[in-house]
Design brief:
Order of helices and strands: EEHEEEHEEEEHEEHHEEEHEEEE
Keywords: Isomerase
InterPro entries: Phenazine_PhzF-like
CATH architecture of the largest domain: Roll
Organism: Natronomicrosphaera hydrolytica
Number of strands: 18
Number of helices: 6
Protein name: PhzF family phenazine biosynthesis protein
CATH superfamily of the largest domain: Diaminopimelate Epimerase, Chain A, domain 1
Distance between the termini: 7 Å
Number of domains: 2
Strand content: 35-45%
Structural class: alpha+beta
CATH class of the largest domain: Alpha Beta
Family: Belongs to the PhzF family.
């Protein structure tokens, strides 16, 4: 049996930018070892597996090393593929059933091309940095935050985010999914806030654009900036842009972006 597979650049409107993800459309339940083997073979930061179920689709995400509980850019890529391949009408929202984060809904604004994903927010708490964290990042911290999965360090400005050169071997010793850097956006950034994200434990030294990180940054920067809708830029080499809108107080966050399909193929195993 073959399975359709797509290579999609997410959180960008240009190919070869944003964060690449593989999207594999499957039918029936497949062994987890097989799913992991496919994700390792794709060797992208995330591979999304989408399976039709009553009332919507099941969605799971795998890095080359492990399954993860939430991934923004691969969710965006999956929704983009379903609408682009006309497996869903553009006027219909998509309901993705996930194993760990409930049902996630996506909506397409056909006029702007923005796909909005309704995610659970993950408000961070100010915390004392774990031993070795600041030294591994090599930055001067303004505030240190701890979320459900990650450490996030606020620094003085976007230049400090852009110029940081973390020690990836040292970050491997930090007990967390990953480590983020963030700062207020400057005029040249055309963003309210900026970020970068490092996850060497998941075999991703630097993630190009990290949707799930913005479930943390949205509530934090809403409090700091006093804005419910914010433009965000992730300052990786590929770069990417998101619109972040807080909903229901700090309970939900809508992450919106665009996506571009780069490759379409068949997985012949």
């Amino acid at each position: 049996m073959s399975h359709a597979i797509y290579h999609v650049d997410a959180f960008t409107d240009s190919p070869f930018a944003g964060n690449p993800a593989a999207v594999c459309l499957i039918t029936g339940e497949l062994d987890d070892d097989w799913l992991q083997a496919v994700a390792t073979e794709m060797n992208l930061s995330e591979t999304a597996f989408v399976r039709p179920i009553p009332g919507g689709f099941e969605l799971r995400w795998f890095t080359p090393a492990a399954e993860v509980e939430l991934c923004g850019h691969a969710t965006l890529a999956a929704a983009h593929v379903l609408w682009e391949q006309q497996l869903m009408g553009a006027e219909k929202p998509i309901a993705f059933k996930t194993r760990h984060r409930g049902v996630l809904h996506c909506e397409l604004d056909a006029e702007s091309g923005l796909i909005a994903m309704d995610f659970p927010a993950d408000p961070p708490a100010v915390a004392e940095p774990v031993a070795g964290l600041i030294e591994a990042l090599g930055v001067e911290p303004v505030t240190v935050l701890r979320s459900r999965y990650d450490w996030v360090v606020e620094v003085e400005d976007s230049a400090a985010v852009r110029e940081a050169r973390p020690n990836m071997l040292a970050l491997m010793d930090i007990d967390a999914r990953g480590v983020g850097l963030t700062a207020r956006g400057g005029e040249a950034d055309e963003a309210d806030f900026v970020s970068r994200f490092f996850a060497p434990r998941l075999r991703i030294d630097e993630d190009a654009v990290t949707g799930s990180l913005h479930c943390v940054l949205g509530p934090y920067w809403r409090r700091m900036l006093g804005k419910d809708v914010m433009d965000a830029a992730q300052l990786s080499q590929r770069g990417g842009r998101l619109r972040v809108a807080m909903r229901e107080g700090d309970e939900r966050v809508a992450l919106a972006g665009r996506a571009v399909t780069v490759t379409v193929g068949q997985l012949l195993v």
